[in-house]
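User: Once you have settled down, look closely at the record that follows, taking as long as you need, and be ready to discuss the fold:
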Amino acid sequence: MEEIKKLTDTIVKGIQEKKGSRIIVADLTGLDGAICKYFVICQGNSPTQVEAITESVEEFARLNTGEKPIKVVGLENAQWVAMDYVDVMVHVFLPDVREYYNLETLWQDAKQTEIPDEY
């Protein structure tokens, strides 16, 4: 479990490196039927920033934990990129797409931690 927490913290740092905002970490460990242990949700202001955040997360995770995502989808249009690290799912959205899908409420039973924007 400690490795999963380290991966989650590293992913958050990768997001912050590229000024991703409104970061939420949802702890799904106590929920029946959850597809992973943690969701990390954030947003970028443009498709270019969404792509940069995705690349930063991949680099930070690989360098600091040795982890690589088993799948990354959504880079074609970079409005919503999902990164699957098995125990941690990362979602990088454009603001309007994030608002539309509203994943935070989908897992509202999970303990959610808001990470303050750093800039």
Remarks:
- The CA atoms of residues 22 and 42 lie 5 Å apart.
